[in-house]
Amino acid sequence: MIVGLPKEIKNNENRVALTPGGVAELVKHGHTVYVQATAGEGSGFTDAEYTSAGGTILPTIEEVYNIAEMIVKVKEPIESEYKLVKPNQLLFTYFHFASHKPLTEAMVASKAICLAYETVEKKDRSLPLLVPMSEVAGRMAIQKGANYLEKPLGGRGILLGGVAGVNPAKVLVLGGGIVGTEAAKMAAGLGADVTIMDISLPRLRYLSDILPANVKTVMSTTYNIREAAKNADLIIGAVLIPGAKAPALITREMLKDLKPGAVLVDVAVDQGGCIETCKPTTHENPTFVIDGVIHYCVANMPGAVPYTSTLALTNATLPYVVKLANKGWGDACREDEELRKGLNVINGQIVYKSVADAFNMSYSPVENHL
């Protein structure tokens, strides 16, 4: 198969979908890999390294899209890329369709095959291609939150871990999945007073067992969220419903009760955000303020640490990329239920129900296309 590796062009997105090692693995299986010039530079990988791995460098993104049967990316195509996508071309990347109707409509119109990292799902309901970036984003959320709590950046001027004789900051984490767990670990490690909420009692029992003593577990209800938010210095939004829009747990009306200079970090922004006042921001302009509360809503947080993120992502995606290249998307998805759940759009039809429901668009079961 001919595989294309374009350079990411989303604002301040420095990740790349495959390391040179990943390219070498595809070449070993007999596939041809075309890499856009400088695609890996932001992550610390040179064109020479891709060439040594067996890849072929092409100067422009147009050439990569034009020749490739499968495009492997990190982030969804942005508007300038829509016209480059071809019918029957397989795109394997993070899409997060349910939060972006123009992207959904463009990919339906392209008649391409869109296989989304974030909805590839194992039998135990875990999301193997979301895990590595969720780990990065959860840990980064605390780093960024701690930073924006500093007074020169508009925050309350509170040190996350406090010092002897001074109470630490209060951190509220909404969601006990991978992002929330990693955020709680990081915040606890820095000495913060942490509360983590989830709607699953078994999950809360598990988190209570594994997390440090300075982390409290609380059932997630509207009342509990409202009361905890009033006292929080830093709130992390870490709620995910696979393939669907995240629910708004911190509402616009709640902001008036939050502490002035409190910080909200919405890691769920890719899926529409679990903070009602959230809107996607960039690493270039990461924050905005509403009612004296700082909102940090960068939609590609792991892009700020691209070396770590690219290695972590390739570790997770490469086995699936090789399977798709070896068998073609149809046979691979027929044989592998995990990959089959990643299919979101096929030849002009939405085949993932949550995406169709998000925009009241027509839905066609994936089985009709395999």
Automatic annotation (TrEMBL):
* Gene Ontology terms: biological process: L-alanine catabolic process
Start and end of every Alanine dehydrogenase/pyridine nucleotide transhydrogenase N-terminal domain?
4-137
User: Binding positions for NAD(+)?
Assistant: 134, 198, 203, 220, 239-240, 267-270, 298-301
- What reaction gets catalysed by this protein? L-alanine + NAD(+) + H2O = pyruvate + NH4(+) + NADH + H(+)
Provide the top EC class.
oxidoreductase
InterPro entries associated with the record: Ala_DH, Ala_DH/PNT_CS2, AlaDH/PNT_CS1, AlaDH/PNT_N, AlaDH/PNT_NAD(H)-bd, NAD(P)-bd_dom_sf
Q: Which Enzyme Commission number(s) are on file for it?
A: 1.4.1.1
- Would you tell me the Gene Ontology cellular component terms? plasma membrane
Q: Which family does it belong to?
A: Belongs to the AlaDH/PNT family.
Q: Which residues does the UniProt record annotate as the domain Alanine dehydrogenase/pyridine nucleotide transhydrogenase NAD(H)-binding?
A: 149-297
To which species is this protein native? Solitalea koreensis
Please name the PANTHER family in this protein's record: ALANINE DEHYDROGENASE
Q: A GO molecular function for this record? A: nucleotide binding
UniProt-recorded name of the protein? Alanine dehydrogenase
- Residues involved in substrate binding: 15, 75
Cite the SMART domains for this sequence. Answer: AlaDh_PNT_C, AlaDh_PNT_N
Gene3D superfamilies tied to this protein: NAD(P)-binding Rossmann-like Domain (3.40.50.720)
